[in-house]
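Ticket #140: bound-state structure for zinc ion.
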Amino acid sequence: MSADCIFCKIVRGEIPAHKIYEDAATLAFLDIHPLADGHTMVIPKPHYEKLEDVPVTEAGKIFETVRRVTGAIQKAFNAPASTIGINNGRAAGQVVPHLHIHIVPRFPGDGGGTIHSIIHGVSKRRLDEVQKMLVTELER
Ligand code: 5GP
Ligand code: ZN
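RESOLUTION: The complex was predicted; output attached.
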């Protein structure tokens, strides 16, 4: 737990939130500035800043809650799809430094973009070079 973290304060019940689901490991609550009705964030209850900080034994629990809540949001709002994402670190736009997974229900013609619209960079390396770099790192 982090004393100053706003999401830890929500976990501890020190500040209000529109909670929609809670279990021993995770909490889901509505984003205070929703991009669509039902825009929800799922967080691990312990304070982890980024995805890679989460112990492997806890990662599955977070994804289980994301899966469960996504289904409920889509049913409740009759949404045929959703965009699910993490601003994983400050350079990616993370403002609250407590890991949170955004779930935004999506509709045909809602004007929103795709994952491909968040950045317009072009890879500077060949795919086989990138593959080698990542396989090497993952084998460490
Ligand atoms: P980030 O850019 O870190 O992925 O997004 C943080 C999100 O948290 C924003 O969408 C913002 O609206 C939401 N948020 C920030 N403070 C609060 C709060 O006190 N309560 C709730 N429910 N959402 C918050
Ligand atoms: Zn926190």
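RESOLUTION NOTES: The pocket of zinc ion (ligand 2) is lined by residues 2, 5, 7-8, 47, 98 (CB under 6 Å).
TICKET STATUS: resolved
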